[in-house]
From TrEMBL:
<feature type="repeat" description="TPR">
    <location>
        <begin position="319"/>
        <end position="352"/>
    </location>
</feature>
<dbReference type="Pfam" id="PF01381">
    <property type="entry name" value="HTH_3"/>
</dbReference>
<dbReference type="InterPro" id="IPR001387">
    <property type="entry name" value="Cro/C1-type_HTH"/>
</dbReference>
<dbReference type="InterPro" id="IPR053163">
    <property type="entry name" value="HTH-type_regulator_Rgg"/>
</dbReference>
<dbReference type="InterPro" id="IPR011990">
    <property type="entry name" value="TPR-like_helical_dom_sf"/>
</dbReference>
<dbReference type="InterPro" id="IPR010982">
    <property type="entry name" value="Lambda_DNA-bd_dom_sf"/>
</dbReference>
<feature type="domain" description="HTH cro/C1-type">
    <location>
        <begin position="13"/>
        <end position="66"/>
    </location>
</feature>
<protein>
    <recommendedName>
        <fullName>HTH cro/C1-type domain-containing protein</fullName>
    </recommendedName>
</protein>
<dbReference type="InterPro" id="IPR019734">
    <property type="entry name" value="TPR_rpt"/>
</dbReference>
<dbReference type="Pfam" id="PF13176">
    <property type="entry name" value="TPR_7"/>
</dbReference>
<keyword id="KW-0802">TPR repeat</keyword>
<dbReference type="GO" id="GO:0003677">
    <property type="term" value="F:DNA binding"/>
</dbReference>
Length: 444
């Protein structure tokens, strides 16, 4: 028997067994174990053909009946797949509760071959509602069940679930964990399977997480590995990749190239009416012009992004752009404007939903007060940023906050200054951990 035949016969056997209200144990005897029955139903390869024939006989079936039963089973599967695809297409555009109810009404148990898909779609619904605990539970179930069903490899459910888990972690400010899930999505992706965009989305996410963690060399490598395939990506993944590339190019001072990539992305985002990505690209372009010292263009970009901000799905992104605008005004010594922009960023910030943006806003507000000579106020905001970055174990931001607190303490308390220096050393050591001789290429 060919492997595909084994898989299809397993589907038929499972359906007939359930229709007869039989358990796995009811079919087991001294010649066949419950585990073997389960393996046959799940299409596990290398099961003895004799065992399959023995099981068919126990169910009162013959090989001659299989083609007709398969045709009927395929018809039912196709109808079910259409329903599942319709539900997936609706996620993010309607009431998730209605979609979850529709999934429940399908009455697909965990022993059904489409169970991993159902759990994955439930996870996506919960992600859309930002119900992280329920999302993670459903996605972990999808991964667990996908490993049990050979047929699920073609749907890439395991990789897709890991990809959604990376989003869950990122949105909860756990960048390192988000990175691990994105890597798992890439490792489990099956090239011959469906959901071909998953590998691009996972790669774009991985590059973005590395960039946010300050690991620019690694982020650039991920970028270079997939950049040649950008025309094959869906618009969302391609635009996310472009935005990340803009940020990396800015940080390594390749400003003209960053502007070029940003403008290309903005044109594509406008054509595809991707408001969220359009907002991000205008904000990133503003950062490039700001780094170049082109204050007028930078301000125009930030204000354009903020105009678009009223239409974006997540208002957290406004915090970063207001912070960037405040920093721009500080560079120009327009301190009142800087205070207004930074105060708006702090007011809009929510450390539970976007700790990174909140931490950055507190750091820049602290810098503002330090520039005005208000050391107590500066220390207050630096301490806030340190508390948040410690809570979410973001060592990169902890290092920034500790350095600023040490700068404040240097002229006030030698004891506090030394304690902060020690803490900063420990964080820097953690950030350096895992580096090897190859990293010297970046500085020599």
């Amino acid at each position: 028997m060919k492997e595909i035949d084994v898989i299809q016969i397993g589907d038929v056997i499972r359906k007939v067994r359930k229709n007869k209200n039989l358990r796995l144990e009811d079919l087991a005897d001294e010649n066949i174990s419950p585990a073997t029955v389960s393996n046959i139903e799940r299409g596990v390869p290398h099961v003895s053909p004799d065992k399959i024939m023995y099981l068919l006989d126990k169910l009162g079936l013959t090989l001659e009946q299989i083609p007709q039963l398969l045709e009927s089973e395929t018809h039912r599967d196709n109808k079910l797949l259409i329903r599942l695809m319709a539900i997936e297409s609706s996620i993010g555009y309607g009431d998730s509760r209605e979609l979850l109810t529709e999934l429940d009404d399908l009455n697909i148990g965990d022993d059904h071959k489409f169970a991993p898909t159902v759990h994955y779609l439930k996870g996506k619904c919960h992600v859309a509602d930002e119900n992280w605990k329920k999302a993670e539970k459903a996605l972990y179930n999808a991964i667990r069940l996908a490993n049990q069903y050979k047929t699920e490899e073609k749907y890439n459910i395991e990789a897709a679930a890991f990809c959604e888990l990376s989003v869950c972690s990122y949105r909860q400010n756990h960048l390192e964990q988000a990175l691990q899930f994105a890597e798992s999505a890439l490792k489990t992706f099956t090239e011959e399977g469906e959901r071909t965009q998953i590998k691009y989305i996972a790669a774009a996410n991985k590059a973005a997480y590395l960039e946010r963690l300050g690991r620019l060399g690694e982020a650039m490598k991920v970028m270079e590995d997939v950049w040649s395939q950008i025309e094959h990506m869906d618009s969302t993944a391609a635009l996310r990749l472009r935005e990340t590339k803009v940020n990396i190019l800015r940080k390594i001072k390749m400003y003209d190239e960053a502007v070029k990539v940003a403008l290309e992305g903005i044109e594509k985002a406008q054509l595809n009416q991707h408001i969220d990505q359009l907002f991000d690209l205008w904000s990133s372009l503003g950062s490039v012009y700001s780094a170049k010292g082109d204050w007028s263009c930078a301000e125009s970009c930030f204000k354009t992004a903020l105009k678009l901000g009223r239409y974006v799905r997540s208002k957290n992104v406004l915090v970063t752009t207001y912070t960037k605008l405040g920093l721009l005004y500080m560079h120009q010594d327009l301190l009142e404007k800087a205070h207004d922009a930074l105060s708006t960023a702090i007011r809009l910030s929510d450390r539970s939903s976007d700790a990174i943006s909140t931490t950055a806003a507190c750091l820049v507000m602290g810098d503002y007060h330090l520039k005005r000579g208000n050391t107590e106020e500066a220390a207050h905001f630096f301490s806030q940023s340190l508390d948040i970055s410690r809570k979410y174990q973001n060592k990169f931001l902890q290092q920034k906050a500790l350095f600023r607190l040490a700068k404040v303490a240097r002229n006030k308390s030698q004891e506090d200054f030394l304690i902060l220096l020690e803490n900063m050393y420990e964080i820097t050591a953690d950030l350096e951990a895992g580096h090897n001789e190859e990293d010297y290429g970046e500085i020599m």
